[in-house]
Write a structure and sequence with these properties.
heterodimer; A: mainly alpha; Cytochrome C Oxidase, Chain A; two-stranded antiparallel ribbon; 15 helices; 6 strands; B: alpha+beta; Immunoglobulin-like; 2 domains; five-stranded mixed β-sheet
Chain lengths: 564, 286
Amino acid sequence: MKKIFSEDHKVIGKQYFFTSLFMALAGSLLSLLMRLQLGWPGKYSFPVLDKIFPNGFSGGVMRPEFYLSLVTMHGTIMVFFFLSMAWSGFGNYFIPLMVGAEDMAFPFLNMLSYWTAVPASIIMLGSLFLPTDAAASGWTAYPPLSAVPLASSGSGLGQDLWIIGMALFIVSFTMGSLNFITTILQMRTKGMTFLRLPLVIWTFLFANLVGLLAFPPLVAAALLLLADRHLGTSFYLPSGLVVMGHLMHRKGGTPLLWEHLFWFLGHPEVYVLVFPALGIAFEVFAAFTRKPPFGYMITLVSFVVISFLSLIVWGHHMFISGMNPYLGEFFSIATLAITIPFSVVMVNLLASLWGGKLIFKTPMLFALGFLSTMGVGGLTGLFLGNAVSDIEMHNTYFVVAHFHFTLLSAALFGVFAGTYFWFPKMFGKMMNETLGKIHFYSTLILFYCVFFPMFYLGFGGMMRHLYDPTQYAFLKPLQPINLFISICAFLLFGSQLIFLFNFFYSLARGEKAPENPWECSTLEWQTSSPPPHGNWKDSYPVVYRWAYDYEKGECVPQTVPESS
Amino acid sequence: MKKWLLIDLILLPVIFILFPSLWSIGAFHPWFPPLASKLGGKIDQMVIYTLIVVVIFMLVGHLFLSWFIVRFGRQKEAETQTLNPKAETLLAVGISLLMAVSAEGGAMALARPVWKKLYIIPPPSHAIQVEITAQQWDWLVRYPGPDGVFGKTNPKLISFMNPLGIVPSDPAGKDDLVLKDEMVLPVNHPAVIYLRSMDVIHSLDLPNFRIRQDATPGMTIRIWFTPTKKGTYPIACSQICGRGHYLMQGKLKIVSYKNYQEWLQKEEKEVSGRGEKEGQEGEKSP
């Protein structure tokens, strides 16, 4: 019992990490079902799947409603329950270690935060097996589709569970981010001034500050949606709605209100997810180039600017929603302004390689892959941040490609770089390098193969959320691309099994990890692997140096006094 | 690990140059659905400008990345151990200026006039007026008839025979022509669409005319375009709207102005014929 409801940040960190891996597995299986449908629409029937989802596959053929449920749940699970939770895992484990604390600021709150996320995950996953469908209104849950049960079978109990799951998740995230912020601000050990912090801690700080400001409004929005669904209010429902021939007696609301509230969370959320990946890339680059990152201060300033701008650009998801066109102009300008600090960060990351001694260990490879894919993801945002080209690209597969190049890039390459990098510290074992390299190359090549062609589908005009694109004559010629993507997606999933094997094999049989296998200067490597209870052997570490002091390619740990 | 070093030094640059280059070449393939509208060409210009900028940045970035990998992958010892504040500032200022000019500046110069024309300046007054009401999962297209005025609607009156709920007592509505999933417009003549939705959010997607506009319930949204080529084009929905989302398609026929007039007159005759009949029945029933 004490182990399960542990208040130790290392245990909670691992709990978060394993939960997020499990959710990633579930979420990617859902995407495979989608690719099965898109690659071979209506061609084959799968009686096996009928057994698992008796509701989703009647007679072995996927129902259109179930496809929409898959889209919705895949998005929700991957964004919130995999990526956000994976960062909570790393944050929990490494923030106290890297700032030199013995635990988080509020250990009990920390435990509570994890144990709020667990029921949220169970509710989300469980709703997939409802006899009525799981939520099927997209991860954005736009009303009236999500507010009126008549409009879609997924808008019944499934949507209620989705709202409750999301609200619980946000409660959990808010507790977690309060804890992270307080720990970073208050629990730094002696000598650990702000400007001596490693960049990854800064990125966790900014990500959680943005998250803390942006997430809670969605809880309010979700409560209003629940009221619209069950109490007859009309926050999001205008007058004169006729759904399925049934007149609704509501008046005065507008779906635009939900769109604003949702994207006020939804857009900063992507920065919450991408920041820690950037931080990890900086950390990994420093360790495997044997030199400090390029432009520490400028990167920090850029992060501040991005964090601020990220809170005022949500409207670029709504250019064509019918909101005031002058607002569209403002959001367009603000969004394109983000490209400036963001490219500075990306170029600093690239320039960090200059003059170094590159060591191609697995974490380094993943960080390089992250730099490439995130670069593509960031640049393709230029099409969507601009209100005019957005008209052509909005809600096409171009958007799907773009956010997989940003978010899946952060997930596949950022989270895996972090995992390969910190695995020795977390579990006291080394991961297998050869398997890691095979995993990396297959992931990188297949990632490009799956998501690059989606840009073309977008140029060709293929809309999102299509159960069967071959229904449209103008999309039929694009079907071979869909087939190619589907095959590559299955292979991409297969190559992740290499990682899972490597992970558990190394956990059982891996070489024992030394204290500081990558020879890093930051604090987490100055204690045993894994760290003892209370993190530090005798007393708190005292910091005398910047996080990236290198002398002739040898790093100097932060705990070494300046004079020696 | 020696063997791997060689593999890394060759494979990484190959992947980082090969894939983005292949993609860039592929991106200039004529993917866009054939263009058939005046302002659509300007939207295409914006996309192509962005495409060129993005392709250049992506290729240059990956060339640098690959060069760094080859150049510094064989290094015995790191060259720089200290920061170079001057180089850092120069690079940051340079990149900021580059992005400000290419992304923000280019986009503003090209995009603002188009956005203004599309949404802010009123469309030409001689434009043909059409109202489209989205409904799960059909497009109801309404022409105002000879009087040029749309009749009032009331959602309470919606029925199988009267899908829009046109108020029978309103004379303006008597000659309104309502079609399902079908629209006809003349070539080279501006057309204004008043877009509404009856139930959930839909999005009117006319890929060949570069029009994509959400139909948000409770709002009437104005959008306009000028078709430039005759032919039959798809109408699609690009916002998730429930089970039949993938089937929510219609046809837009662009014909000569003469043919359009003929078609309209023929349809109008049917409407007035039906209207008289309905009128007589209406008189009987109370």
